[in-house]
Specification:
With 265 residues, this protein is mainly α. The chain has ten helices and two strands; from the N terminus they run E-H-H-E-H-H-H-H-H-H-H-H. The protein binds fe (ii) ion (2 copies).
Length: 265
């Protein structure tokens, strides 16, 4: 019988985006149908594998070298969607990484991240299919890797990973997506608006999962979530959060009133 965490690592190592997506969908279904076991105690080793496995394109460049996307040209709009496709590709990878890398979490932790991974695969497909409809594809533009860099910085600590990836990087998406959606609304690109609505809604759930496990780990070690977050953000050089914040979405995603008020100071 296949084991969930080992299978997640195997999918993460794979370089073809479409194979990764279909592998994840089967893994999710097989797990639901009890065809996959789970070993929470085993410490797995990625050996010499380069993580994440990824196609030769897109070319990865520094964030400042990604051209600014213009909304008034088809190419500019496709470029914006392409950045989104790349974020979803890495979001799939980060959810897989959360599964294989950290042993000794409750079974529900792995199940939560499996659900996230499946939803990211679905988001990647939505964006990629729409890119194809616009006659572009994933790999056509350069991309930057800041999301994955935060994953790499936090390979040594599950609490840092939860604090800085879902609760910081994915939560930034909650703030950023509404403005992008409104720009597409203005030019009546309804399909893109629909896709962004789906993504925004699902992402609230991902940040909620990050909050759930961050707070679980804090409680386990009798730590204050607020002080601990501050310390981890400094230690792992998290980006400083800038408003405007999507307070309603952040509330739904499980941030407390105190955490939200600290954001705005
Ligand atoms: Fe996503
Ligand atoms: Fe996500």
């Amino acid at each position: 019988m296949l084991e969930l965490r080992e299978a997640a690592l195997a999918i993460l190592v794979g370089t073809d985006a479409q194979v990764k997506v279909s592998g994840l969908f089967s893994l999710f279904n097989d797990y639901q149908n009890q065809k996959i076991s789970i070993d929470i105690t085993r410490k797995l080793d990625s050996k010499e594998s380069i993580l994440p496995g990824r196609p030769t394109k897109p070319e990865l460049v520094l964030p400042k070298l990604v051209p600014k996307r213009r909304m008034d040209t088809p190419e500019g709009r496709a470029g914006l969607l392409h950045s989104l496709a790349h974020i979803e590709f890495n979001a799939m990878n980060l959810a897989l990484d959360a599964i294989w890398r950290f042993p000794n979490m409750p079974k529900e932790y792995y199940e939560d991240w499996l659900k996230v991974a499946k939803e990211e695969a679905y988001h990647f497909n939505l964006v990629n299919e729409h890119l194809h409809a616009l006659e572009f594809s994933y790999g056509d533009f350069p991309a930057h890797n800041s999301l994955w860099e935060m994953v790499e910085r936090t390979t040594d600590s599950v609490i840092a990973r939860m604090a800085l990836v879902p609760r910081t990087m994915e939560a930034r998406g909650l703030d950023a997506v509404p403005a992008i959606r409104d720009r597409f609304k203005q030019i009546k690109e309804t399909r893109t608006v629909e896709i962004l609505e789906i993504i925004l809604n699902d992402e609230i759930g991902h940040v909620l999962i990050g909050n759930r496990w961050f707070n679980f780990l804090c409680a386990q070690d009798h730590l204050s979530p607020i002080t601990t977050y501050r310390e981890l953000a400094a230690k792992y050089r998290a980006p400083v959060l800038k408003g405007p914040f999507n307070i309603a979405a952040r509330q739904q995603a499980g941030f407390t009133a105190e955490e939200l008020s600290l954001l705005e100071t």
